[in-house]
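Hey, weird one. I pasted the Rhodanese domain-containing protein sequence into the form twice and got a warning about non-standard characters only the second time. First submission, copied straight from the form history:
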Amino acid sequence: MPPKLLDDHVRFRFDPAGGDVTSVVLECDPAIPGSREFALVDGLWELALPRPDLDRIEYRFVVTRPLPDGVAAETVLDPDNPVTVETAFGSRSVMQMPGYAVPSWLAAPAVPGSFHPMALAGETHDDVPVTLWSPDGHDGQALPLVLVNDGPEYDQLASITQFSAAKIAAGELPPHRLALAHPVLRDAWYSGSPSYLRTIAEQGFARIGEVAPIRGPVVVVGASLGGLTALLVALLDEDEIGGVFSQSGSFFQASLDGRESGYKYFDRISHKVKDILDTREAARPLHVAMTCGALEENADNNRHMAAALRRAGHEVTYAEVADLHNYTAWRDALDPHLTQLLRDVWGEAQG
């Protein structure tokens, strides 16, 4: 039986289907409160999870079965729930709360587009691969540009090219291109690496412009470490950049993020974050839009960052969503938040 919302809790069930099972544990985001241990009730394993303030829950079951010489634990999708999602860490079952709906733009008419692979050579040891998406019919024309950190993942798991294609078709955004940057050395590059930041901001946009001319200010997008990187790229004071869209940015601080303190690049990130938090006046104000899950671990450091950027003179919008640290949450927040940022940076689309 699929999970069911009952008053103040979500009931999960697992049917052992005649096999021996010694325990069942719910695997979900640690930000969700409540016990994870199922109890055996009338032949079914059952869990009552206090209802979290979320629109959806991504989860799996950890099922332990006896073996002749011990036990074996297996992580499985919910066999009774057909709703699943692909994530950066594999498939998950999904419990959707009443009222949740996928974005309408996912099924909206969209302009056709094409992909062009290229590489950005700069200060990084390895070139940065980029896939350029362009709406058809604009070859050689100068168009606005969005650079997307973790670009292939944003496209595969958050449908960002469909977002752009649908918004262009609807006349809500002008024709524009997406530069989908591949995270080849993600931890090293997306942790405040000066060589990566300069490769993107100083050489990268010039190289892209040689292939596809750029009109107007560039907007840089990213989530998690990519959200941090989007902001750091924009703060290099390059005139080409006018906007930042950061989702669940990893703005680590020593006072807030003890769980992350063992991360290899924690000190480099926290020092760069502190520099931004201590800045009292922006040399070049930016349009910044930020989203974050209200319950996720990064919420406090995102709130601090939004306040600091606003205090320094940047134009900042910050929205918290009823989801957690995942690509579906970031997809669902593209509209209206990225839509409005692009309109603010590029001007109102004529539709």
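That's the output from the first submission. The warning seems to come from a hidden character in my clipboard, not from the data itself. Residues 26 and 61 are 5 Å apart (CA to CA).
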